[in-house]
Specification:
The complex is a heterodimer of chains A (368) and B (271).
Chain A lengths: L2 H20 L4 H6 L4 H5 L4 H26 L7 H25 L6 H23 L5 H23 L4 H21 L9 H5 L7 H30 L1 H6 L4 H42 L3 H26 L3 H26 L21
Helix pairs in contact in A: 4-5, 4-10, 5-10, 5-12, 5-13, 6-7, 6-8, 6-12, 7-12, 10-12, 12-13, 12-14, 13-14
Chain B lengths: L2 H21 L5 E10 L7 E9 L3 E5 L6 H9 L6 E6 L2 E2 L9 E4 L13 H6 L3 H4 L6 H13 L15 H14 L4 E5 L7 H16 L3 E6 L2 H7 L2 E6 L1 E7 H6 L2 H6 L4 H6 L1
Parallel strand pairs in B: 3-8, 3-9, 6-7, 7-8
Antiparallel strand pairs in B: 1-2, 1-4, 4-5, 9-10
Helix pairs in contact in B: 5-6
Classes of the chains: A mainly alpha (368), B alpha/beta (271).
Chain lengths: 368, 271
């Protein structure tokens, strides 16, 4: 990738290592403690709106509990795991769904930039909760801030006529700087660790944030289902799409907004730092083995689900941070996909079919 | 809706637009460029261009590299906005024109994503998108897609990944996409770059037969011999219009020498 972003990534890697060594509270340990957030957040006015979704969560929880009883799998016994698995499954669908429309336009890093601005959104949410006792999950403020940032990136690129890695790097660092500043200013009143937002955490997926995620999931899947033709055309050939009357700028705006939603939704488990991987890695794997676009979409979702489920399971039993394990599993799957892809080309060396001649008489036109 | 119905609807729509154009006092111009100046920076790329292309014409725009051919095409399609002057497409200002199903567009080098997993049939399918909007492609649409594939001789490649095709095959796929759109106006920007010689000949025959059936063809072309053999009318461009008229007159005129230099005269004389 480009120089500006590589420098950032290296710096971030060191920050990550530093934070990991000091972070003695592993996911599995915190997992066994009850989560106090639920009790606090249940009183929020948002909860009345989300009430039907809590019902869905209850039904889901019951179903998974039943599976746990039948199979005796310890991992499925806890309430927080029920929510984490549901969130993971949703991420496994929506991240590659949006990622497909980003990766093939060389926009893979936009997810990273948005994740960092979402971190600023989390800081704003924590700040508001501490100061005016808003009682809203910080993920909601993260959605709002990330979507505004997404729109800004898109508008900048429309004015300058290019997705510019420098401007993306600036947005990325601004978001992260704003987040750390807000949190440090507010540190006296805050007991909440930001680790869960940076690295993700299975055990802190509250009912409220799971419900918010379900809303995001529904929006994303619906919008992609409705506009799939236009998104495909714009992704594949922007100029031809514009000639054919598709308002390309509007679809670009829609894609970055949806990206912001996915990023925030996936942040709960993946964390700010690793969330972009879910947008990119399964899609990259799928494009190695798939032939058609529809097939690629399907395969990328399957690969992502596999990574999420295996990753959550392994991280639970190994007592590791879920986000990291999920990404490692996804990358392992990607490597396998590359190998399979190569094998396909070698084995499937399809004979070249006879190219037909251009058939002048058969030319069909609107007037025939 | 059967293809015949679709055709008649398209026909009646076309007539409707013509009537509107006449009401506006305009001619039957598909593209109307008047006194257009445009430059990406302060230096103009094209200057004082006035060209009008009527329904059913077969027009080639020629000119040396950097003569503003592609810029003029982008202006005509409304992808760029002129600094001064006006461009009208089917009677509407080009930059606000959004009836995309009337235009088929084949780009110079497929500007499309190179690594994307997508089959030839899925590319041709995109030609139907302006017709179906948010809906699904119905059986009739798929029939048109398959017929377009057959027309360009790519049926056997329908399920191949576009990334595995040769330049010529890929260009055929994009032409099929333009055909599947059933457009009134075909705009082609050096469509035969990288296409094998025998396909090029067949391709120009195809354009001619499409033109015979009433489709307006606008060809941006670098290959002069192709132009002089096939187009009815030539617009010779080098920043400004050097020649605009029937192909025969273009071959005899001095516009060729003035824009391309002496090297190009051989093409004219060989005819």
């Amino acid at each position: 990738m480009t120089g500006a972003l590589v420098a950032l990534d290296v710096a971030r890697l060191f920050a990550t290592l530093l934070a990991l060594t000091t972070d003695s509270a592993l996911a599995a340990v915190t997992a066994l403690q009850s989560t106090p957030f639920d009790a606090v957040l249940q009183s929020s006015p948002l909860d009345t709106v989300l009430a039907p979704l809590y019902w869905i969560l209850d039904v889901w929880s019951g179903a998974v509990g039943w599976v746990a009883e039948q199979t005796g799998l310890q991992v499925l016994e806890y309430g927080f795991m029920h929510r984490a698995i549901l969130v993971g499954l949703c991420i496994g669908v929506m991240a590659p769904l949006i990622g497909t429309f980003l990766v093939h336009r060389q926009l893979a890093l936009i997810g990273d930039a948005l994740a960092h601005t979402a971190f600023a959104g989390v800081a704003v949410g924590l700040f508001l909760n501490a100061v005016i006792d808003l009682g809203v999950t910080p993920y909601l403020t993260a959605v709002v801030v990330a979507m505004i940032a997404a729109l800004c990136i898109e508008l900048i690129s429309e004015v300058t006529d290019a997705y510019n890695d420098v401007s993306m790097a600036i947005v990325l660092s601004t978001g992260f700087a704003l987040g750390t500043t807000l949190i440090s200013v507010n540190a006296g009143g805050l007991t909440v660790s930001v680790d869960q937002y940076l690295f993700g955490n299975l055990s802190t997926v509250t009912s409220q944030s799971a419900a918010v995620l379900l809303v995001l999931f529904a929006i994303i899947v619906t919008v992609v289902a409705v506009t799939r033709n236009q998104l495909l055309y714009v992704t594949f050939d922007e100029t031809a799409a514009e000639v054919s009357g598709i308002p390309v700028d509007w679809y670009n705006r829609i894609v970055v907004m949806l990206t912001a939603m996915v990023v925030v939704g996936a942040m709960q488990i993946m964390g700010v730092i690793l969330v972009a991987a879910m947008l990119v890695v399964p899609v990259a794997g799928a494009s190695q083995v798939a032939r058609s676009f529809d097939e690629a979409l399907l395969v990328s979702v399957v690969l992502a689900e596999l990574a999420v489920l295996v990753g959550i399971g392994v991280s639970y039993y190994a007592g590791a941070t879920a986000g990291g394990v999920v990404v490692l599993v996804a990358v392992a799957i990607y490597v396998v996909a590359v190998a399979v892809g190569k094998l396909q080309t070698v084995l499937g060396e399809e004979g070249t079919p006879e190219m037909g001649s251009i058939d002048v008489d058969d030319a069909e036109t609107p007037s025939d | 809706m059967s293809p015949d119905d679709a055709a008649s609807v398209a026909g009646s729509r076309a007539t409707g637009t013509t009537t509107d154009a006449n009401v506006d006092g305009a001619t039957e111009s598909v593209i109307e460029v008047s006194n257009v100046d445009f430059g990406y920076t302060a230096t103009p790329v094209v200057e004082d261009i006035s060209v009008s292309i009527d329904r059913g014409e077969y027009v080639a725009v020629v000119g040396p590299n950097g003569s503003g051919k592609s810029t003029l095409m982008k202006l005509m399609l409304g992808l760029l906005e002129p600094d001064t002057g006006s461009v009208r497409l089917f009677g509407e200002p080009a930059d606000r024109f959004d009836d995309g199903e009337r235009i088929g567009y084949v780009a110079q080098h497929a500007s499309s994503s190179k690594e994307m997993p997508i089959t030839v049939r899925e590319v041709v399918k995109m030609g139907r998108f302006p017709h179906v909007g948010f809906g699904r492609l119905v059986a009739d649409d798929w029939e048109i897609v398959d017929r377009a594939l057959e027309t360009v001789g790519m049926s056997a490649f329908a399920d191949r990944r576009v990334t595995q095709l040769s330049g010529g095959q890929r260009q055929r796929a994009f032409i099929a996409r333009a055909l599947a759109g059933e457009a009134d106006l075909l705009v082609l920007d050096e469509p035969t770059v990288g296409v094998d010689a025998e396909s090029v000949e067949a391709f120009y025959d195809l354009l001619e037969s499409l033109n015979d059936e009433g489709i307006t063809v606008l060809l941006i072309e670098h290959d002069l011999s192709a132009v002089t053999q096939h187009a009815d009318r030539v617009v010779c461009l080098d920043g400004e219009v050097y020649f605009d008229g029937p192909t025969d007159e273009f071959v005899d005129s001095d516009a060729l020498v003035r824009t391309f230099g002496t090297a190009a005269t051989a093409v004219g004389e060989s005819r």
